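From the methods appendix. Each design record in this collection lists the tokenized structure first, followed by the designed amino acid sequence. Records were kept in a plain field format so they could be parsed without special tools. The example shown here is representative of the layout used throughout.

RECORD:
FOLD TOKENS (1344 positions):
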């Protein structure tokens, strides 16, 4: 009798059968694996090695349906069996069970032995932006190893130092350094070698944004933490040090911790830390449990609480801050005053300075230089090593198949020196724009810095760097029921990644100043001085003058010295540098920009960047408009002279601020007699303050152009009859939700809702096209649909987080198409219809009129006609500036006002902790107290209960992965009462492709379940289809290689454990976004059930197929039929999705709308929108309770009816948009090619459809004129008084878009005309999912 011996070193166990050996739980397994990993040298885990060999390791996944095949790069001479390393920063995860398939089927359509058609999707490989624990080219850490050193140009020289910052001679100015390409084709190009690369230590946690992802908490470096600790336990199998300590262990600091004013009392500190850092204004159960655990923690003693209270704690913090000079005049916050002159018509003075002034007290501010030094000097800060001090250019080397046909219409540099000259010629690399530190503006400043003379006395090795400052300011209401307001100025560092500074939890915003308002005391002082109250013009002048004087206070002599000569700082990363401060961008709404630039609103020249006349705004996008945009505003001598002359007329001659004499001096540029602080301080440095003003996508488009356009579309619908508006509201309520609050449920009266945030208008843009279909006359319906499409297409491109030359080229064309569509809409549809006010607008106007007795015009209660005049506004004109600004300063999320709006939440929360009297000072103190307490937290060994629970879950997962990858098996079918040794935690690793719970709480007996649903068409042939799918997985390995020649005895060889399958509620899909983030979608058969999968290789027309998931199952199966092996006879778990994957007419012979797919082939969730205009049908499928879990009405299940038409949304978020658009760097060979993407900028008018299926979107070709919104409406958009509630009930400004991904829109392209379409649908004809013959004649609406 043969014996089966355990192969683990040191184990003597033997079994009489293979089954007995599989049940053996070897206690020597984990120590053996740990010993093996200890011996492995960390140097063997590298991204690339010349002369290295490759191994493909097949790793069995116990408890899952597949083996995990992972490509590894091994250094030459290493043991192929034991040494593993990921492929150049990306892990390709392709799960399959059994043998790998040989290829895709030759014929596109196959049939089973029963005559059913099989339509098989393509295979999907998920690429994770990580190799070991690093990202992108971050493994190319400069100076880490010879293989990862940037490639030095042969012309570089290390000769004697020059007198300029740049050390190379003039003939070697082009000397550059490049990092090796990563797995996605990205590489960086430096003009000089940096001393520190902050991206070298980034982990997968840096890009994992899903809420269910693990959040590692590693020991801080100040306490002896080490960077070799894995960021995620899922990387334990490739990180040598993981098994040495699976659970986090914090060594006690040998020194007694000091908690600032609380001394040695951990009791008092932990309470204050909970109050400032870990508590919440609205406590949840989890926070309350944390508090209880804190009270029971070690070192927490009740004796320390004697006499301790909140007031005493605040006093202790205040005294400690004063003793440590935190608020000393030499450091930190200052309280100053400024003086503003008070003009009066007829009053003459010898000079402007001789005029009476008003002293504004309580200007709380920080010195810019002190703030910058304090942040960058702190070596203990968690972001100390995250700053990019040396800018670089980022390039993308597209795959060979994405060569844009040799077209050189984009500025493309030469290919990188690291490319292989022996292989086929690769396409030229594309310039990538992601962050401020790789923008042209910073690179230009860097080039100027390299050319300037070195400061005398500086060490030759002293590094000269640019510190770019991003400024944001806006006034906000602190309370809904009080008049309390705050006007903060926030400062961000452009050297910090936008993915860090955009997170509110990182507290990357530095509060620079709080601008006070002019109170009634000013009016009293003015009246005492001039014996009459100030006019509106005087109040407006003084408020703007106050803004200017505060900025003059901030840009003091110390700042100017740092701007010109720099300051020497020992930075937190341990490198001494001379820092040169540069103000890069200023993000603000339009009314704030008017204050900065001293422009006059509602004037002839409204643009803050050029001198275009207000009469020419409607011509945006025309050749003439392009020429006018070249006439940019400048801070030149002529501008400053005009303002000074106007100020003399006001103060020395006594002319009125609103008089023609002053206007004549400034009317050429529509300025006001206000001095621009940036012009005064920085004019001599050639700084142009008009260029720093960033476009504001939220206020200018979402709450400007699109909001007003949408409102007018609603008016046009109302003009067709009140029943049309009611139908519009009904259709909006039918629209499904999508994502994590990206598209929320539309409730009552969607057409006239008030106080909506920007995210609400983005959601409207997603669903507007199918909602308005058929509500307008046919010709107008087509025009409006084209308009919405072009607006949404432009918005999606303008809001991308990662651009490259190809997407910017398409943005240029999209801008032209959008302007053309707007002009056609204004000239045709708007001209044909008289749009009246909506009832809500009439009621609001009546209320305003009644508030002014005696001034109400005749017929105030009647409806007024409304003219569409969006085309005559600055907001519409500004849309043409985005392309140039993105090229120069990076993508729009670098300077979006959304970041500042979110920061308002912090000050609003701090306001709740003040006594509402002199709250500005208290908010400033609270802000710094919170920062101080967060800094002391690193000295405390206590970990909150919620974090300990998360760490325990991660430790469980780490142990499970090590056990599985080292050959262990999870035993199924264990005896009753026995608990599984390993359980999948709630939190999941971002490294895996998908997650289905291992719960067995919902078992289903397959045969009994089919009998219970007898007569339901969904279960017809269910068991045979299931066995065919399992046989295909066992024999072929993947769904796409499913066989059609299974013999009956082969199918009879399939076994289900106890004839059971286990149902699960959700499937979590992890995916890599176009900009190399790791995100997660949740699929649920009852709400978010739509998915997208790759189409097979033979289907080149459609890159994706779509389906709706009806069930998520796991089964435990084995094969005992002919040619079975001991491996196939072992019980293995298979994960299965049961979708309507083909969406065909089930009544046609041979069509089977139901099938099974492997979850590994799912790319991510899709958003399929119904089209109410085409009505309901019961002809496509017999009544089915299982197939119609999502009913035709929200929350109501209907077993009979379907909508006749559906639309696959292309832009529910930016990632799905890039999957259809093409050119997504993180998508890695999946989806639309780059050359196809370039063709998306083409528009045609042929509704029958061109030969090229990609060019099937009809757009208007006429140009037109005219229309739009007054500056008063613009000011209303920016009203800080208006507040709304977010999903959690927290107050926020109405123009805040707090969708994490701030995200995103959707639209649908129209398919060509079909003969069977009715006349009303022929103008747009979308997708008919339920008919295979009508499937997807439109680009990117994949075959289902």
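DESIGN:
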């Amino acid at each position: 009798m043969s014996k089966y011996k355990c192969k683990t070193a040191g184990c003597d166990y033997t079994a009489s059968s293979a089954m007995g050996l599989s049940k053996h739980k070897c206690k020597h397994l984990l120590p053996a694996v740990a010993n093996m990993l200890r011996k492995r040298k960390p140097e063997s885990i590298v991204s690339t090695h010349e002369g290295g060999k490759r191994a493909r390791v097949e790793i069995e996944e116990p408890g899952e349906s597949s083996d995990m095949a992972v490509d590894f790069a091994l250094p030459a001479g290493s043991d192929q069996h034991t040494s593993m390393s990921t492929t150049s920063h990306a892990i390709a995860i392709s799960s399959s069970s059994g043998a790998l398939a040989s290829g895709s089927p030759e014929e596109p359509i196959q049939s089973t032995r029963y005559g059913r058609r099989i339509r098989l999707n393509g295979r999907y490989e998920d690429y994770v932006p990580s190799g070991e624990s690093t990202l992108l080219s971050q493994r190319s850490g400069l100076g880490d190893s010879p293989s990862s050193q940037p490639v030095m140009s042969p012309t570089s020289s290390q000769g004697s130092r020059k007198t300029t910052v740049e050390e190379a001679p003039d003939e070697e100015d082009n000397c550059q350094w490049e990092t090796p390409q990563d797995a996605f084709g990205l590489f960086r190009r430096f003009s000089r070698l940096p001393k520190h690369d902050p991206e070298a230590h980034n982990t997968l946690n840096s890009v994992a944004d899903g809420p269910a992802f693990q959040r590692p908490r590693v020991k801080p470096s100040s306490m002896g933490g080490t960077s070799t600790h894995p960021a995620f336990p899922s990387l334990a199998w490739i990180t040598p040090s993981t098994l040495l300590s699976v659970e986090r262990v914090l060594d006690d600091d040998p020194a007694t911790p000091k908690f600032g004013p609380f001394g040695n009392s951990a009791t008092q500190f932990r309470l204050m830390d909970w109050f400032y850092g870990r508590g919440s204004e609205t406590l949840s159960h989890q926070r309350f449990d944390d508090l209880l655990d804190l009270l029971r923690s070690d070192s927490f003693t009740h004796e320390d609480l004697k006499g301790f209270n909140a007031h005493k704690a605040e006093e202790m913090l205040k005294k400690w801050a004063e003793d440590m000079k935190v608020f000393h005049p030499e450091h930190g916050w200052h309280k100053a005053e400024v003086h503003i002159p008070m003009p009066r018509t007829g009053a003459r003075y010898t000079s402007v300075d001789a005029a009476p002034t008003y002293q504004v007290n309580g200007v709380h501010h920080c010195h810019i230089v002190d703030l910058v030094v304090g942040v960058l000097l702190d070596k203990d800060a968690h972001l100390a090593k995250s700053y990019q001090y040396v800018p670089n250019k980022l390039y993308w080397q597209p795959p060979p198949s994405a060569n844009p046909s040799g077209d050189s219409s984009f500025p493309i540099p030469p290919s990188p020196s690291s490319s292989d000259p022996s292989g086929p010629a690769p396409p030229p690399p594309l310039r990538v724009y992601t962050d401020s530190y790789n923008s042209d503006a910073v690179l230009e400043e860097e080039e100027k810095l390299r050319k300037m003379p070195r400061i005398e006395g500086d060490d030759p090795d002293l590094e000269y760097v640019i510190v770019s400052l991003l400024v944001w300011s806006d006034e906000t209401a602190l309370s809904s029921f009080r008049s309390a307001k705050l006007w903060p100025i926030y400062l961000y560092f452009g050297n910090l990644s936008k993915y860090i500074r955009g997170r509110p939890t990182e507290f990357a915003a530095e509060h620079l100043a709080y601008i006070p308002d002019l109170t009634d005391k000013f009016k009293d002082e003015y009246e005492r001085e001039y014996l009459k109250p100030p006019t509106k013009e005087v109040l407006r002048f003084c408020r703007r003058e106050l803004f200017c004087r505060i900025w003059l206070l901030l840009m003091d002599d110390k700042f100017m010295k740092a701007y010109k000569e720099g300051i020497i700082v020992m930075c937190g990363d341990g490198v001494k540098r001379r820092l040169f401060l540069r103000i890069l961008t200023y993000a603000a709404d339009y009314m704030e920009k008017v204050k900065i630039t001293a422009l006059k609103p509602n004037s002839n020249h409204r643009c803050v960047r050029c001198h275009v006349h207000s009469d020419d705004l409607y011509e945006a996008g025309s050749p003439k408009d392009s020429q006018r945009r070249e006439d940019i505003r400048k801070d030149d001598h002529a501008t400053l002279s005009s303002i000074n002359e106007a100020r003399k007329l006001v103060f020395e001659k006594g002319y009125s601020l609103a008089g023609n004499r002053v206007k004549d001096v400034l009317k050429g540029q529509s300025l006001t007699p206000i001095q621009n602080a940036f012009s005064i301080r920085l004019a001599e440095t050639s700084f142009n303050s008009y260029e720093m003003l960033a476009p504001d996508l939220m206020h200018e488009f979402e709450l400007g152009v699109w909001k007003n356009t949408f409102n007018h579309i609603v008016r046009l619908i109302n003009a067709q009859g009140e029943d049309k508006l009611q139908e519009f509201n009904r259709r909006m309520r039918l629209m499904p939700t999508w994502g994590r609050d990206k598209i929320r449920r539309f409730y009552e009266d969607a057409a006239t809702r008030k106080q909506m945030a920007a995210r609400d208008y983005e959601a409207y843009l997603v669903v507007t096209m199918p909602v308005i279909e058929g509500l307008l006359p046919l010709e107008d319906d087509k025009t409006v649909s084209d308009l919405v499409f072009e607006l949404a297409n432009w918005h999606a491109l303008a809001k991308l987080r990662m651009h490259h030359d190809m997407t910017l080229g398409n943005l240029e064309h999209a801008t032209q198409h959008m302007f053309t569509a707007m002009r056609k809409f204004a000239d045709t549809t708007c001209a044909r219809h008289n749009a009246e006010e909506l009832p809500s607008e009439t009621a609001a106007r009546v209320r305003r009129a009644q508030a002014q007795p005696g001034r109400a015009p005749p017929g105030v209660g009647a409806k007024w006609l409304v003219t569409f005049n969006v085309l005559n506004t600055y907001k519409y004109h500004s849309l043409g500036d985005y392309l140039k600004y993105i090229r120069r300063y990076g993508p729009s999320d670098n300077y979006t006002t959304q970041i500042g709006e979110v920061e308002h939440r912090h000050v609003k929360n701090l306001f709740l902790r003040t006594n509402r009297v002199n709250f500005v000072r208290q908010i400033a103190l609270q802000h710094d107290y919170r920062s101080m307490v967060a800094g002391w937290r690193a000295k405390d060994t206590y970990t909150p209960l919620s974090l300990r629970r998360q760490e325990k879950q991660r430790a469980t997962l780490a142990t499970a992965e090590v056990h599985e990858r080292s050959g262990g098996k999870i035993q199924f079918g264990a005896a009753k009462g026995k608990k599984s040794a390993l359980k999948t935690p709630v939190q999941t690793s971002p490294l895996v492709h998908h997650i289905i719970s291992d719960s067995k709480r919902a078992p289903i007996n397959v045969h009994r379940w089919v009998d219970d649903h007898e007569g339901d068409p969904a279960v017809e042939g269910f068991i045979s289809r299931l066995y065919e799918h399992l046989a295909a997985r066992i024999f072929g390995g993947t769904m796409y290689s499913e066989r059609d020649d299974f013999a009956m005895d082969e199918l009879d060889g399939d076994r289900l454990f106890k004839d059971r399958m286990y149902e699960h509620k959700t499937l979590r899909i992890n995916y890599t976004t176009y900009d190399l983030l790791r995100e997660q979608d949740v699929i649920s058969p009852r709400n978010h059930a739509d998915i997208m999968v790759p189409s097979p290789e033979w289907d080149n027309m459609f890159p994706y197929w779509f389906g709706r998931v009806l069930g998520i199952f796991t089964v435990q199966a084995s094969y005992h039929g002919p040619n079975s092996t001991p491996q196939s006879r072992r019980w293995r778990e298979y994960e299965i999705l049961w979708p309507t994957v083909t969406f065909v007419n089930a009544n046609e012979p041979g069509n089977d709308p139901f099938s099974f797919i492997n979850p590994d082939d799912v790319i991510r969730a899709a958003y399929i929108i119904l089209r109410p205009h085409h009505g309901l049908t019961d002809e496509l499928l017999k009544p089915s309770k299982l197939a119609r879990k999502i009913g035709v009405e929200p929350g109501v299940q209907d077993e009979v009816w379907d909508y006749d038409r559906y639309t696959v949304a292309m832009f529910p978020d930016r990632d799905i948009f890039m999957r259809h658009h093409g050119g997504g760097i993180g998508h890695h060979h999946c989806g639309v090619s780059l050359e196809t993407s370039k063709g998306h900028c083409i528009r045609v008018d042929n509704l029958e459809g061109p030969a090229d299926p990609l060019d099937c979107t009809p757009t208007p070709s006429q140009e037109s004129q005219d229309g739009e919104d007054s500056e008063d409406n613009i000011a209303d958009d920016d009203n800080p008084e208006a507040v709304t509630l977010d999903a959690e009930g927290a107050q926020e400004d109405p123009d805040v878009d707090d969708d994490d991904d701030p995200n995103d829109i959707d639209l649908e392209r129209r398919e060509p005309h079909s003969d069977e379409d009715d006349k009303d649908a022929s103008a747009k004809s979308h997708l008919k999912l339920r008919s295979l013959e009508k499937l997807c004649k439109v680009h990117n609406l994949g075959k289902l």
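APPENDIX NOTE: The CA atoms of residues 643 and 673 lie 5 Å apart.
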